[in-house]
Design brief:
Number of helices of chain B: 8
Radius of gyration of chain B: 21 Å
Structural class of chain A: alpha+beta
Helix content of chain A: 10-25%
Helix content of chain B: 10-25%
Oligomer: heterodimer
Radius of gyration of chain A: 13 Å
Number of strands of chain B: 19
CATH superfamily of chain A: RNA polymerase II/Efflux pump adaptor protein, barrel-sandwich hybrid domain
Largest sheet of chain B: 6 strands, mixed
Order of helices and strands of chain A: EEEHEEEEEHHEEH
Chain lengths: 127, 370
């Protein structure tokens, strides 16, 4: 299985992982494979307040530029500086080292509106 | 259902990411576009370019016909040489950029995949009374490009002749039943060859090649890096730097147009005027109003086709292609810019929508192999 269990997804391919009241957001392997080599990542500033559905950054590849959305509201408490420094980490490990931002949740119920891992993988099966 | 090239199973074996390109199922990459790019700059890469159109012209009036549709002179070409140029419309707009191969008794034109049907229809409409046979050999043949600084080393194991070929010369080889056309041409800015071979023989040929390449490690390379390689080398791509509403003089590709080619020379047969010649003569005399330039950008963002090039708050041009150059490590772009702002060293900006990025006009090509 190429999609780790226990994640929540937007249709626009962002994954969300809950740990306590902190949600880590990244972009799925499926989306990264479509984008090809990632060359640039733009992320929000720490302490920014974001709302579910907001654009929180941009990801650029050799092929295309794409907005990054959040499926949850809250405060940005950390951004992945390593991914900004060397975007290849997003290609190499999109569900792990290639995470993008951590958000302190303001409304846990928002996560329930997102696709679970199984539903996401059924909708976007790996090749 | 897109067409498949004779190398389809090769792509599958090498885990290609396949995409539809001009109606062909082509490899975008085999893992990483950037890795493949570096491999072509430092070693040797093999590209399937079978999607390119291959059209044969034979018959009593083949020479005259090509002179009529092509912007460069072919009458003085020696057999076994190639020439790059354009097929234009009456307004001088580019219908396609092509390479013409001259054989002893016929010509071959290699054109862009997306323009093949259009060109075939264009040519058919022009045959008239001329005795010329036009054969589309795209599907009965395959074509590969071997590109990179170590390619000649590898080819030397098969042939002592090929490494002695001049750029834009070609030779034909008959290896048992395998008939090859090998030209010292390419679209990457590296040394290398392009090989045309019968479609049925591609499987055998590629096995021979990869087996005998030994530790040189010829690695497959996809269309993704073909684009970034040609961009670093300042080469135009149809649909980006060239379209039917762009003429080759404005594109700065004057070397691909011989405006006086119909001037008769001692001992040479008569050369007809070519389609678009009147318009191109006028554009050349008046001088084009804009120029194709190279831009070096600050930061790490990738400029894309159609982004505006700005001088202050005034749009003075448009990006045609861009990438974060894997070889140079900074973003580069080609763009059409108004003459007044097109000098090397001019500082401009690129409009990325939410932000603008500083850019400087630099000479083309961005990269030249040593």
């Amino acid at each position: 299985m190429s999609v780790p269990a226990g994640l929540r997804f937007l249709d626009s391919h962002e994954w969300h992982k809950l740990d306590g009241n902190i949600v880590t957001v990244g972009v799925s392997r499926f989306a990264i494979d479509e984008l090809t080599d990632v060359t640039y990542v733009d992320l929000p500033c720490k302490d920014n307040t974001v709302a579910a559905g907001d654009t929180i950054g941009e990801i650029e590849s050799v092929k295309a530029t794409s907005d990054i959305y959040t499926g949850v509201s809250g405060k940005v408490i950390e951004v992945n500086e390593a991914a900004i420094e060397d975007p290849a980490v997003v290609n190499n490990d999109p569900f792990g080292e290639g995470w993008l931002v951590k958000i302190e949740l303001s409304d846990p119920a928002e996560l329930d509106k997102l696709l679970d891992s199984k539903a996401y993988e059924a909708k976007f099966p790996a090749e | 259902m897109p067409n498949r090239t004779p190398f389809y199973s090769f792509h599958q074996e090498h885990h290609a990411k396949l995409v539809d390109y001009a109606g062909w199922e082509m490899p975008l990459h085999y893992g990483s576009i950037i890795d493949e790019h570096h491999n072509v700059r430092t070693g040797a890469g093999i590209f399937d370019v079978s999607h390119m159109g291959r059209v044969k012209f034979s018959g009593r009036h083949a020479r005259r016909f090509i002179e009529h549709v092509f912007t460069r002179r072919v009458t003085d070409m020696k057999a076994k040489s190639c020439r790059y140029g354009f097929v234009c419309n009456e307004a001088g707009g580019v219908l396609d950029d092509v390479i013409v191969y001259r054989f002893d008794d016929h010509f071959l034109m290699v054109c862009n995949a997306a323009n093949r049907e259009k060109l075939l229809a264009h040519f058919q409409s022009l045959v008239g009374e001329m005795s010329v046979k036009i054969e589309d050999q795209t599907e009965s043949t395959g074509m590969v490009a071997l590109q990179g600084p170590r390619v000649m080393e590898m080819i030397g194991k098969f042939s002592s002749e090929v490494p002695t070929l001049k750029r834009y010369a070609f030779t034909t080889k008959n290896l048992l039943i395998l008939k090859l056309v090998i030209s010292r041409t390419g679209y990457t800015g590296e040394d290398g060859v392009e090989v045309i071979l019968p479609a049925k023989m591609t499987g055998m040929a590629i096995k021979l090649l990869l087996r005998d390449s030994g530790d040189l490690q010829v690695k497959p390379a996809g269309l993704g890096c073909r684009d970034s390689l040609r961009l670093e080398a300042g080469m135009p791509l149809y649909g980006h730097e060239l379209t039917e509403s762009i003429d080759p003089i404005s594109a700065g590709l004057n070397f691909g147009v011989t405006l006086d080619k119909d001037k008769t020379e001692e001992g040479q047969p008569e050369i007809p005027r070519f389609i678009g010649q009147d318009a191109l003569e006028k554009i050349a005399a008046e001088g084009p109003t804009r120029k194709l330039v190279g831009l070096k950008l600050e930061g790490r963002r990738t400029p894309r086709q159609h982004m505006n090039v700005m001088h202050g708050d005034q749009a003075v041009g448009e990006v045609t292609s861009g990438c974060l150059s894997p070889t140079l490590g900074y973003p580069i772009a080609m763009a059409y810019v108004d003459n007044a702002q097109a000098a090397v060293g001019t500082n401009l900006t690129i409009d990325f929508g939410k932000q603008t990025v500083a850019a400087e006009i630099v000479p083309l090509p961005f990269y030249k192999h040593s």
